[in-house]
Amino acid sequence: MDKIIVDGPCKLEGSVKISKAKNAYLPILSGVLLSDKKITLNEIPNLRDINTMLTLLGNLGVGIERNGDSVVLDPSTLNSHEATYDLVKTMRASIFTLGPILTRLHKAKVSLPGGCAIGTRPIDLHLSNLEKMGAKITLEGGYVYAETDGPLKGAHLVLAFPSVGATENLMMAAVFAEGITTIENAALEPEIDDLANFLNAMGAKVTGIGTKKIQIEGVKELHEVNYTAIGDRIEAATYIMAALATKSNVKVTDFNPSHLEFVLDELKTMGAKLNIGDNFVEVLPSDLKACKVDTAPFPGFPTDVQAQMMALVTQVKGSSIITEHIFENRFMHVPELNRLGAHIELKGNTAFVEGESKLKGAPVMCTDLRASAALIIAALASEGKTEISRVYHLDRGYDNLASKLQDLGAKITRSAES
Ligand code: UD1
Fold this sequence. Notes:
alpha/beta, 4-stranded mixed sheet, globular, binds uridine-diphosphate-N-acetylglucosamine
């Protein structure tokens, strides 16, 4: 296990290139299972979750050839319908393989992902709607068994909540379903549009992209495709907040700022000086004031940026209030931030954060992916050395974090934990 040491406070300067989005490539890689034709995916980020998904595809029989940061996949050799517990337990997104395997092979056995650090995260919306499409589903021994007699049937599906994963799983399941599938109250996250664009690029018929009503007309076959996913808006938000927390001048490039509109508007209201272009945001040193933030499905404030925002507002003028509405237990960063000298009090799903805290380096521990990003931001703003352990959480979703921050001038090193 590696650890990261930050010697703060750090001033950042320069520009940082955002990698392609983990949350776009995870469903897209699952979508590979739909096809039996060659698929080339470019600029694959070097992330633990992406590697786990590739291992899962390999175990299912998909041919995988790495070519620099591109990967050429041959799903014609798919020879298993089983996603086993050993991989699924390390990454919930493995459940995205259920819809594609089922619609292609008419049977699937996928381990139940179970809970995770940030909450229970059920998959009832995935399963009940697959049943509406004609799947017979049973749960046994920690596994979902799904099967159909012949193709799935197009259906009118209304999601009780705009779940990102359920929208993606059902969209993929519908690619070969007979007739038309409509998903109402679909999630609006940009990664869903990206998945739909990928599916269409290989011959699927998805319409209503970017709306709450997505329609998928079943097709009989797909063709070869060469695709590159969108930039990672959550990684971009993390660097923007790191720059603001350290009053730095940083240009964050290679992503679409409209995917972060709500966050950028909030930051501007707080006093952030941002120069926003088509594919970049330049952060200028700014004096910020407190905010009141409520997480919400897209286009609202992303739950995946809540922890980073909390680290940032420990450094602004006034007290902030942050309420988490998507996951019930997404405050694991709070005790760790308080170890660094933050003053954050939790009441239910709301955090009350005092601003202008003098943070001081201390040993802290990563607990989940975005909580870890919050610790990095706080460490950059802290006086002295912060030792961050269990950085494998960061490796799930941040491509070359330490070296990107080093290139911005941060005093950050990574070493093997003794
Ligand atoms: C995805 C993202 C994750 C992000 C989340 C919310 C990926 C790989 N992960 O996760 O980073 O934090 O969206 O933006 O893209 N729910 C149910 N039943 C279901 C499905 C979900 O009750 O069948 C609930 C969940 O428990 C949670 C909420 O809906 O409270 C949101 O979950 P969902 O949108 O499905 O998130 P994920 O797809 O798991």
